[in-house]
Specification:
This protein is of the alpha/beta class. The chain contains 7 helices and 9 strands; from the N terminus they run βαβαβαβαβββββααα. The protein has helices at residues 16-21, 40-46, 59-69, 86-96, 165-185, 193-210, 218-250; strands at residues 3-9, 28-33, 50-53, 74-79, 102-113, 116-129, 133-137, 143-146, 149-160. The protein has a 7-stranded mixed sheet, sandwiched between helices. It is globular and about 60 Å long. The mean pLDDT is 93.
Length: 251
């Protein structure tokens, strides 16, 4: 079985090199770049990846675009801040070397905040047989629709996100623009004063209690407050868009 690895990028010059080097076991590496203005594209090309520059805010479209460019029977979707370990690479090669009636595999992803493993491990479908992938859905938090059985790999996929506060805040400012716009375009109910408190408390609770962030000590407090801050910025920008629309209507 052949394998195409597909990476979606946007200003990932700090991550892309290590990410692609860990994917050398794949038969081809495809980078779908979403309007990077740093050195991401040049680095990816130097490392032998096939790079396609694609604009737009729909991340399912970007992943589906990668599918169309892939030439292999199987596809492995990886983000630039994720790392395929030797153990995971060996397991992938092993399962693809045998005949199987499975159409895709879920991988256990371990998030790292400030280089510390987060207690909550999530399972996400990332290894998919091309002919069985119906497509990706969801503009921002996308997921794969697969026809057939889904298996599970045992090796962990490390996800090195939120390494320092400066990049975290920069990321929040950028992504909150997209998230608030998507909510605005989908006619989100008018933002009332109480909604800010509800979404912030819910976000903090999910991170600190449900995902057991408290087990990581101070990092759990910082990360959980950051999550509450991040959703606050998204809804504040949504509120700003809604008010601007009302003002323009009254002019």
């Amino acid at each position: 079985m052949t394998l195409s690895s597909i990476v979606i990028t946007r200003n990932e010059e700090k991550n892309i090199s290590n990410c692609l080097k860990a994917l050398k076991f794949a038969d081809e590496i495809i980078v779908v770049d979403n309007n990077s203005y740093d050195g991401t594209v040049n680095i990816a090309k130097k490392l032998g990846a096939k790079v396609f520059k694609v604009p737009g805010l729909d991340f399912s479209y970007l992943r589906n675009y990668g599918k169309e460019k892939a030439k292999s029977e199987w596809m492995l979707y990886i983000d630039a801040d994720e790392r395929v370990t030797e153990s995971l690479a060996s397991e992938i090669k092993k399962v693809l070397s045998k005949k199987t009636d499975v159409s895709g595999f879920a991988i256990s992803r371990q998030n790292y905040y400030f280089d510390t493993p987060w207690p909550k491990i999530e399972k996400i479908v990332r290894l998919v047989k091309k002919d069985s992938l119906i497509g990706w859905q969801g503009q921002l938090h996308e997921s794969a629709l697969v026809a057939g059985k889904i298996g599970t790999l045992t090796s962990i996929l490390p996800h090195y996100t939120h390494r320092d506060l400066t990049s975290m805040i920069e990321k929040t400012n950028e992504w909150s623009e997209i998230e608030s716009l998507l909510r605005f375009q989908n006619n989100h109910p008018k933002v009332s004063w109480w909604r800010f408190f509800r979404v912030m408390v819910s976000s903090f609770w999910k991170s600190y209690i449900t995902e057991e962030g408290w087990k990581t000590g101070v990092i759990g407090i910082v990360e959980s407050i950051y999550q509450a801050f991040s959703i606050f910025i998204t809804y504040a920008k949504l509120w700003e868009r809604q008010n601007a629309k009302v003002k323009n209507r009254n002019l």
